[in-house]
Every structure is written in C-alpha cells, then in structure tokens.
C-alpha cells in the first residue's frame, strides 16, 4: 500500500531525523516527510522556549535564559546542524577542487574555518536570543525561530542537485516543489502567530536571502546539496530570523 501524503507519521520521521528525542517506533519517510520539518522545529522550539521562559521566571537575565535555550537546542538536536555548518565552513573555506572540498566536508575532524564559523554562529545566536527574550512575548517568538529555520532546509532539497553519489541528502531523495512550499508556509505561519506580520515578513526576507546566498555558493563550489549544506542552511536561517526579530 502506498503511504499517505502528509501523514501524522511524517512528524515522527522528521523528529527522528532532526532530534534525539525518544520516539515511538516509526518508519523512515525520506523526502516525503520534509514538509513536516517546521512542525518538528515547533516541537523542539516549544521545549526550548518553555525552558527559557522558566529561566526568566526564576530570575535569570535574558542573557542567561538565552544560554539555556541555546544549550537545550544543541542537546535536543545532537548538534546536528552545528556540525553541518562547521563542515561546510571547512570545505568552502579552502582553495581546492570540488572533490577535495567534499572530502574535507566528510572528514570528522574540525578545522580552523569550521571552528571559527561555529564560534561566531553560537555567539550570534546567543546575542539574538538575548535580545528577543528581553522583549515582551519574546519567549513565544522562539517557536517561530525554530520552525522557520527548519523549513529553510526544504527548498534546497527541492531545487539543488545532489553533490555526492551517496550520503544523507541523496538517501533522503528529492523533495516535491509543493512540499517545499508547504514547509515554508508552515514556518512563516508560526512566525506570524508568535511575532506578528511585520516580523514575519522581515524574517522571511532575511532568511530567504541568507539561504539563497548559501545555495549559490554550494552550487558553485561543490555542485549542489549535501546533508552538511542543509544543516548550514538551518543555522544561517536561524541567525537571519533572530536578526529580524531583535530589532
């Protein structure tokens, strides 16, 4: 029997890929579950936002609450997206041909470019979360940050060719254009519900520009998408969304 499109099992599959949460038994759904990435982000964002708001309620300043949110985010995902960002920075930063860049990205060792990118990204996310959490209702806005940044990966899965003959991205398969549009729409809807129309427009625009720039660079340097490129897309989108929300 052909699996139903947009089934509840897609959320479990998305959470199984994007988090380390204990989940009921479920079957992998590959690219068919990509539309649910923003819903998985919403679940993760709810856990992180509740922790951040509890930290604020206990008297921590917004900077301390931001550390709680950031730390829980990294733990919930097993640093999946951070690893992708670091690997992309190492591969994109060197002067080498496509094959060598892909080889570097697959290397589990952290290089100088990756270390610097990781530190700057963590600092940018902490600063953005600090300012967002200091705003009235800022804890709820975290939901939109998590949801929209996960949806940012899905269009790349639909439009970019695979850079490798194997690997996570190719194993997931090609995402349908309609599923990519649905994922982005769901992510924007969460931002609209938690932060308002102006912030939704600004977050969508900045995240779109950031992810487009990454996609163009990935296409030029390595020929398309890998799992690391998708992880890096989530990270640059999150930073862009926080930049939109904190002003």
Radius of gyration: 17 Å
Number of helices: 12
- The end-to-end span amounts to 50 Å
In total, the number of domains comes to 1
What are the secondary-structure elements, in order, as H or E?
A: HHHHHHHHHHHH
Helix content: over 70%
The 3D shape can be described as globular
Number of strands: 0
Class based on secondary structure composition and strand pairing = mainly alpha
Quick check: average pLDDT?
94
- Give the oligomeric state: single chain
In percent, how much strand structure appears in the residues?
under 5%
Attribute tags:
globular, 247 residues, single chain, 12 helices, mainly alpha
Describe, in plain words, how this protein is organized in 3D.
The chain is mainly alpha-helical and 247 residues long. It has one domain. 74% of the residues lie in helices and 0% in strands. α11 (197-222) runs antiparallel to α12. The longest helix has 26 residues, at 197-222. The N and C termini lie far apart (50 Å). The relative contact order is 0.15. The model has no long low-confidence stretch (mean pLDDT 94).
Brief rundown of the structure:
By secondary structure, the chain is mainly alpha-helical.
Give the SSE map.
Layout: H1 9-18, H2 37-57, H3 62-77, H4 80-93, H5 98-106, H6 112-133, H7 138-151, H8 153-159, H9 168-172, H10 177-195, H11 197-222, H12 227-245
Helix pairs in contact: 1-2, 2-3, 2-7, 2-10, 3-6, 4-5, 4-6, 4-12, 6-7, 6-12, 7-10, 7-12, 8-10, 8-12, 10-11, 11-12
């Amino acid at each position: 029997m052909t699996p139903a499109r947009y089934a509840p099992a897609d959320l479990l599959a998305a959470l199984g890929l994007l988090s380390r949460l204990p989940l009921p038994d479920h079957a992998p759904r590959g690219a068919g579950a990509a539309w649910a990435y923003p819903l998985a982000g919403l679940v993760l964002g709810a856990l992180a936002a509740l922790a951040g708001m509890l930290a604020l309620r206990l008297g921590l300043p917004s900077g301390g609450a931001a550390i709680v949110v950031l730390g829980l985010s990294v733990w919930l995902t097993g640093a999946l997206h951070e690893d992708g960002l670091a690997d992309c920075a190492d591969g994109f930063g060197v002067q080498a041909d496509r094959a060598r860049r892909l080889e570097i990205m697959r290397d589990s060792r952290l290089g100088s470019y990756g270390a610097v990118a990781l530190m700057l990204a963590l600092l940018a996310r902490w600063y953005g979360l600090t300012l967002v959490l200091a705003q009235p209702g800022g804890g709820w806005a975290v939901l939109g940050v998590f949801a929209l940044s996960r949806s940012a990966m899905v269009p790349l899965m639909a439009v970019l060719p695979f850079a490798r003959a194997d690997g996570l991205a190719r194993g997931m398969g090609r995402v349908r254009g309609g599923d990519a549009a649905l994922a982005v729409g769901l992510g924007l809807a969460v931002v609209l519900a938690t932060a308002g129309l102006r912030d939704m427009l600004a977050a969508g625009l900045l995240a779109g520009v950031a992810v487009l720039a990454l996609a163009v660079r990935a296409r030029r340097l390595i020929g398309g998408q890998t799992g690391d490129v998708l992880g890096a897309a989530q990270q640059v989108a999150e930073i862009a969304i926080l930049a939109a929300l904190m002003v």
